[in-house]
Write a structure and sequence with these properties.
This protein is mainly α and about 160 residues long. About 60% of the residues lie in helices and about 10% in strands. It contains six helices and three strands; from the N terminus they run H-H-E-H-H-E-E-H-H. This is MarR family transcriptional regulator.
Length: about 160
């Protein structure tokens, strides 16, 4: 038998994938209940948690699992449903911002309490405070290495 099959690195990546898939399956029904896809929820969260509730489209792509064209399609769909709007960048005509609307904020407010309950039940509530702090540090280390754009545009920048 191939000894590489017992490599703990395979176990580590396998457990991460299984945990993520299991959590997403637990959350999916609640998103469906609110007629919201997981990626639409992620976009609303990213925008709501960003300075001025907006992100450049390229930064939104960097913070999500979507390509630039994927973000365009999702924002188009969300714009048609009134959850986001686009705004031109005043300093760069090539860029535009996705901005969460009042309707998007409302939709997020409807989904968030149930989402937090599920996150508590199936994720953070299973860990001690110390385990959670260590997990968050570890996940940030990995995220910042494999996806350095993950926080692009999320820091407040002073006006020029």
């Amino acid at each position: 038998m191939n000894k590489d099959l017992d490599d703990p690195r395979l176990t580590a990546i396998g457990l991460l994938a299984e945990a993520y898939t299991g959590l997403m399956n637990r959350l999916a029904a609640q998103f469906d209940e609110h007629r919201l896809s997981p990626v639409e929820f992620e976009v609303l969260m990213r925008l709501a948690r960003s300075p001025r509730s907006q992100l450049r489209m390229t930064d939104l792509a960097g913070q999500t699992t979507l390509s630039t064209s994927g973000v365009t399609r999702v924002v188009d769909r969300m714009e048609r449903s009134g959850m986001v709007r686009r705004e031109a960048c005043a300093t760069d005509r090539r860029s535009s911002y996705a901005v969460i609307t009042e309707a998007g904020q409302q939709r997020l407010a409807e989904v968030l309490p149930g989402h937090l309950e599920l996150v508590q039940k199936w994720y953070v509530g299973l860990l001690t405070e110390e385990q959670l702090e260590q997990l968050l540090r570890s996940l940030r280390t990995i995220r910042d290495t494999v996806n350095p754009c993950a926080v692009a545009g999320s820091e407040e920048t002073p006006p020029a």
